[in-house]
Amino acid sequence: MVLDTESEGFLWQTFLIFAACAFTPLMVWVGNPESPAFLTSALVIIVLTALGLAFRTILVRFGADPLGITYSMAIFLFFFLSAGALVTSAAGGRWAAFGIALLVSGIAYRLRAMGIFRVLVAWAAFFLLAVPLLSYIQRSDPGEASVEANAAMQIPSIEAGPDVVVVVLDGYASDEVLREFHHFDNSGFTDHLEGMGFTVATNIKSNFPVTTLSVVNTLNLDYVVEEQHLTRSDFEVLYEILGGNNTLARILTDSGYSQTYVESGWLGTRCRSLVDDCVAVPWPDETIYDMSLRSLLRGLPGFEVGQSFGRGARHSLEWLENDLDRYLANDVSDYVYVHVLAPHPPFFLTSSCEMIPTTELSGFISNVPGLSEDQMDIRSEGYLDQVRCVNRVLASVAEAAVANNAIVVMFGDHGSDIGGQLQLDSSEWTDAQIRERFGPFFAGYGPGCDFEDLGSLVNVSRRIVACLSSDEVADLPLRAFLPSKEWDLTEIDLAVSVDD
Q1: Rounded to 10 degrees, what is the CA torsion of 454, 456, 462, 466?
Q2: 130 and 161 inside one domain
Q3: Which of 46, 151, 336, 431 is deepest in the core (most CB within 10 A)?
């Protein structure tokens, strides 16, 4: 490629700045194209390109060479957006990395007249756009879905009746797990629920240790996945099920129920086509914080890892407190599904549900590698604060359900992870780590409903349907599966780990 001075006009310089701004947002989007990340990435690219051009114009007004300052601006923006790893690895941290960015930008300005340098810049600009494109093409084959045949179930006949409320509490562990692994007594809350007529399970188990697999089997009333290898195409099907197109929703909507779905802030809980009333999560989504991790903003207040999880959790809890009542009190048979991303980390919610993001409580796992015992105690207490927050809201949900004779189930999709199991391949999990992760919270209530002796989460929706249907819906036996890091599922004998 040979460029002459006349070809390097304003449009070319705009392209250079655009390419520098686009690389990191596009790479974030490629890593998560199922979410609304593309819109967020596009907005970030447009805003950063506009800012880059604005600064370029100002510096040119002060006498800077237009092409030279464009080179400097493009290199600085690329470095700023993509050199986040230097914040934690380079001597001097963020300021050293910032200084390197300025130094490289200054060198670029000095080299602006060199033909070979201009050619290298041109090739680099095309390379920055080609890499995300090639990465996207490379992952375009999702593989064959192997779960679709398991996703359909014969639908029992029911008539629209009492409202049905399903509240999933991400990572909410059972009383036994809280007592053993967090040294926390939750019996005051569970006793309160039982006093209101709720059934609180003491021995219910999750069928899977991860959210997607656990919840889709519950909502689909059957084991959608078994011992098999999961492809990306499988997860697209599973997200569709998780997003409201599942057997429980089909049974209820076909019987006259209106489905209201409250998004959580995580890509797996986006509303799908079967949803009648979608309550969208607040923007911005996690894409913004993924970008900040790659940039020199990494670790600054306001960019803690998991911001959208924390905001989404608070949004869902506020909706339950402030909006659920009007659905339960109307004349329509409502099916309400709410996925609350708490007490799952990050631990940004206080016991009063105020959101206070901090670096020490950020991230998506509880037991972060390299933390001291004192730091782990802080994270465990952060988890318990979110349990207290969730309990306060669930108490109001329980009161509303009882007052309106609604069917409500509130359960964790899996237990906590303070044992550090998420850092390991599942084949390395100890019995204690399995016991912690497979022990979820469950409470259920409904006129004429039986939530005793559920066995495992796969039977929760089956009991709801049995409560509404004249057809018999038998429980399924407890089966538990562990996924490897490559998403190969292996069935395990959970009783061996539970009976410690």
Answers
A1: 0
A2: no
A3: 336
Name the residue among 290, 328, 306, 312 with its Cα closest to residue 406.
328
Strand order in the sheet with 199-200: 199-200, 442-445, 407-412, 164-169, 334-340, 258-262, 277-279
Rg over alpha carbons for the chain, rounded to the nearest Å, is: 26
**What is the number of domains present in the chain?**
2
Q: Which amino acid, 59?
A: L
Residues 345 and 451 in one domain: yes
pLDDT in tens, 397-418: 999 999 999 999 999 999 999 9
Specify whether 362 is located in the same domain as 484. Answer: yes
Question: Does one domain contain both 164 and 65?
Answer: no
Statement: residue 25 has pLDDT above 50: yes
The residues near 139 (Cβ < 8 Å, ≥ 6 apart) are 30, 232
Most distant pair of Cα atoms in the chain: their distance: 83
Contact 225, 483 (CB under 8 A): no
Confidence category of residue 152, pLDDT binned at 50, 70, 90: low
Tokens of 428: 């390395």
Q: Which residue has the tokens 């105020």?
A: 354
385 shares its domain with 482: yes
Instruction: Quote the CA–CA distance of 29 and 352 in Å, as a whole number.
Output: 34
pLDDT of res. 3: 44
CA distances from residue 243 to 39, 279, 370 in whole angstroms, order as listed = 20, 12, 36
Q: Which residue matches tokens 């599966």?
A: 481
pLDDT value at residue 369 = 82
Please check whether residues 45 and 172 belong to one and the same domain. no
| DSSP code per residue over 23-46 | HHHHHHHHT-TTSTHHHHHHHHHH
Q: Averaged over 194-204, what is the pLDDT?
A: 95
Q: Quick one: pLDDT band at residue 153, thresholds 50, 70, 90?
A: low
* Mean pLDDT computed over every residue of the chain: 91
CA–CA gap between residue 364 and residue 455 (Å, rounded): 28
Instruction: Please tell me whether residues 158 and 301 are part of one structural domain.
Output: yes
Same domain, 105 and 129: yes
**Domain CATH code at residue 456:** 3.40.720.10
* CB-based contact 440:415 (threshold 8 Å): yes
Of 129-143, 158-172, 181-195, the poorest mean pLDDT is in 129-143
Which of 138, 168, 199 is the last residue in one of the domains?
Answer: 138
**Rounded Cα distance, 8 and 14, in Å:** 10
Q: What range does the domain containing 17 cover?
A: 5-138
Residue 368 has pLDDT above 80, yes or no: yes
Whether residue 143 lies inside any domain: the answer is no
Mean pLDDT over residues 374-396, rounded? 97
